[in-house]
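[job 0412] stage=fold_complex status=start
inputs:
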Amino acid sequence: MHDLTFFRNNLESMRKRLAARGFDLDLDAFQDLDRKRRQAVTEAEMLKAERNAASIEISKLRKQGADTTDRQQQVRLTGDRIADLDQQVTNLDDEFRDLLSRIPNITDASVPLGRSSDDNVEVKRWGTPREFDFKPKPHWDLGPELGILDLERAAKVAGARFAVYWGMGARLERALINLMLDVHTNEHGYQEVLPPFLINSASLFGTGQLPKFAEDLFRCEGHDLWLAPTAEVPVTNLYRSETLNADQLPISLCAYTPCFRSEAGSYGRDVRGIIRQHQFQKVELVKFTKPEQSYEEHEKLTRDAEDILERLELPYRRVLLCSGDTGFSAAKTYDLEVWLPGQNDYKEISSCSNFEAFQARRAQIRTKSGKSKSEFVHTLNGSGLAAGRTWVAILENFQQSDGSIAIPKALQPYLGCDRILPNEKHY
RNA sequence: GGAGAGGUGGCUGAGUGGUCGAAAGCAGCGGUUUGCUAAACCGUCGUAGGCCUUUAAAGUCUACCGGGGGUUCGAAUCCCCCCCUCUCCGCCA
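[job 0412] stage=fold_complex status=done
writing structure:
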């Protein structure tokens, strides 16, 4: 959400910058609503001042023993008009807030202009895709053949876009999560948190998923609770409505959580395998920073995510999203894409964003040092990494001609072996 | 799920219908005093929104005592609903 005063004072330039990311701001609608709201507020407040004065007057008169019935009757009428105006103000406020809360963040100056993912800019490439002396298989063949991935039974138990992992498949997922958490907490300076997986509407509003993207979420019937689509939501909202001491910033947190997404509108995309699931596991990195340090921390956070890929010896590239492809709340986003031999392409495995004050303003997360006025923090987050897609990358990149999977050195202590062989107990 | 207690400013904590945005204390900030520190003393000290103003400041008004509704000329205070915290009981991993 934008700062109203700033937005109002810079309407034309905001309109242009929003257009750069493909959002069409209706200036007339904005100004009209803004003007109507201020009119109603002004009128209601004038009447309230009048009523307050009259109440004090009545109080004095009654102490003197005067009959105030008529005066009370008059004020009562004023009260009715106030109630009427207050209702108008409430309605206009809601409407205005709704309008404001659906306007996306503006992108940073370093973000290239563009309309779609075609205009994203590759800024870096690490590792060389391996040369195979046989035709590499996609994970949806490898997993079931090894008896470690079972999509049929997942469909029975839950439905399409769910997975069941057996034996070393399950252990591989757990090993990846443990490796990521250990590296981030021990070597990158993040504190681990384990947040709730169900979250309320206020939290989703704070990070920007609501009100605009409700259809992407799963909701618990009869409760104000939703399944978290990413740990970004519960972790960023840990400090909702709080003022953080500037000396403590930046605060770096990492969290393992499952993530639940309805994937409405993704029909036909990534239907094979486990690239796109209703549930996937992820280790998330979240930072709260002072405004002036957020871009430096954004680079660091992205490097922290990349470090995991490098330890796992997985070739990847870093892509800077263009204005049109950057998400609703973000000012700047890097996607990390891992090489998947089975798809013969790079595929998103992490997304690292700087939201500047956009989420902090929605979630009321401030910072204050000494006597300076409090200001909104900047929030950042990134996957470090999506475990499901890392699982896929391990299988596809390290598959052997005999169908087994070699395990990169860094992961071996976590998996307890250097190779995944066919699961003899998968019936 | 049942019974009870409670939610007031950064914190502690008064306040049961009328200048209460709210006593007092602590912390914070500014100052006086002081060889330094400490103490003492004086002052100051919430947030948001509207009006005014070129912006800001100042000024002024409005709102805010967990959230929402109601009663009243007037609500932190009375009534109703909800949420949260704590204690006990039940249930449960």
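[job 0412] summary: The longest strand of chain A covers residues 279-289.
[job 0412] exit 0
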